[in-house]
Amino acid sequence: xxxxxxxxxxxxxxxxxxxxxxxxxxxxxxxxxxxxxxxxxxxxxxxxxxxxxxxxxxxxxxxxxxxxxxxxxxxxxxxxxxxxxxxxxxxxxxxxxxxxxxxxxxxxxxxxxxxxxxxxxxxxxxxxxxxxxxxxxxxxxxxxxxxxxxxxxxxxxxxxxxxxxxxxxxxxxxxxxxxxxxxxxxxxxxxxxxxxxxxxxxxxxxxxxxxxxxxxxxxxxxxxxxxxxxxxxxxxxxxxxxxxxxxxxxxxxxxxxxxxxxxxxxxxxxxxxxxxxxxxxxxxxxxxxxxxxxxxxxx
Length: 299
Hints:
Blueprint: E1 3-9, E2 16-22, E3 25-28, H1 35-39, H2 43-50, E4 57-58, E5 64-65, E6 73-78, H3 82-91, H4 96-103, E7 108-114, E8 119-120, E9 125-127, E10 134-135, E11 138-144, E12 150-158, E13 160-161, H5 162-167, H6 172-176, E14 182-184, E15 189-190, E16 201-208, E17 211-219, H7 227-235, E18 244-247, E19 265-270, E20 274-282, H8 288-295
Parallel strand pairs: 6-18, 8-14, 9-20
Antiparallel strand pairs: 1-2, 1-5, 2-3, 3-4, 6-7, 10-13, 11-12, 11-18, 12-14, 12-15, 16-17, 16-19, 19-20
Helix pairs in contact: 3-4
């Protein structure tokens, strides 16, 4: 039975609790009060900590939180699949930059969201009110501890405005960083539980009401970068004292005639990791709860 590291609200006192989910139960970690604490540990100590759990609870009725807290950050790598290179070149007024970065020694890396801006499975994802052409980007996400060691994997939806990035590549921050722009699955699969992260199938389905309006598949085998090289490039100039999650790019991009609409439901499935499902909404107002939850200590 698969194991996931999760955060959830305690049904007793409402505080965020790090735990281990196995099937339909969750057990709290003993002696670890946050994911930040967990991700400060070296890999061997983290694995030992995950083995020390308290009394299990049923999953039913629990509120799960994003698997990142404290000073944790989400970053992204771009143009790491041939399909992504082609799509970016197709939409852009400056095609050559995407062709060059695909084969360059230096990967494209950019910050996506601090922990408190991340939404989780079941919560809405956003599209900008001034965009007009928006897509999800289903991605394998690497979880690294503060020591730069890969400790697990999860699923990321790196929401993107194709219209804004297409006008000028320098607009990437505006095309990528906005309210509801980053979703993570509720669970992290520990690295020792994933046999080969470069051999995982990825599936994307978008539904509009009762109709499936888009579906696509790819595999992490098509990822042109090595995972350890992406993490090494990320940690070379930066410290991540409470850990970091790095989404590794997308190999599924809808054709140019498709755009998300308010009310669509996005489902991403990655083999051996699980599923991430989010409804789509427009503008920043629906995400005011992120700032409120931060003030209340829930994120």
